[in-house]
Amino acid sequence: MRLQGGRLAALHCFLHCARQLSFARAAELLHLSPSAVSHRMRKLEEELGFPLFQRRPRGLVLTERGETLYHTLAQSLGQIDSVLTQLEQPGPCGQLRLHAMPGLAQGWLLPRLADFYHRYPGLGLSLVTGNSQVDFGASRWDGALYYLPAPLPGLAHDSLMTEDLIPVCSPAYFQALDSGSLRQARLLHDASAWFGCRPEAEWQYWLERHKQPIGEHHLYFDQTELAVQAALAGLGVAMGRGHLVAARLTAGTLIAPFGPAVTAPCRYWLTYPAEQKKAPVFGAFRDWLLAQL
To answer: 83 with 108, same domain?
Structure first.
């Protein structure tokens, strides 16, 4: 059956009848007479070739096919209503596909996304995290957030912010640590801190600047947030990144008793194909992101 104007009107009428399970109540909502609604449903059933309702003394009951049609219509109209709501909003509309390194996504970006959606209600975001480099030529990514010593060649980029490195642990772990010595501590590593780095890279960098040897006890993870969670659980000392552990240091769930922070060898970058600068959806996200700094 083709969806022509009269049939669309009949389906709209059916949706109200199926929700109310009453021709009379549906008629009130549609500003029609109950007999007109009943007639429309009879005609629709004849065109479809199967009944939509069981007509009983105490009201209507949907048939199995009626149930299927009702749920399909309700879902479809809900999607249409959502799209119309987005289109009515000021500003750009569309979907953004963003890749981000896990630590930055979890510890910095997510707490700020409510403000993004408040400012751009017509935009949707598909956020995927990972430690690998995005191949923009082979996939449909709009941009990527990286933690790197330098920007990747051949792509446009914006420098977002520098980072500090500071060892952090739970208060209980520090109290139990023999003489409070970092040398005796278990070091918790993000073994994939940036592309091509050694598993101990961040710890080695901090220790060299404090002229301390690396210890003998180590535990490795593939995300900085996992290392920080391990520190919270009392498993050892994680190399915290300042932007990502600041809230937990303020709350006192983590402490930094082993010495001052050092500027990290990496910083955060927004990387993207150059043509994305002209794309309204990506441009809105980029403007918002830079305003957060």
So the answer is: no
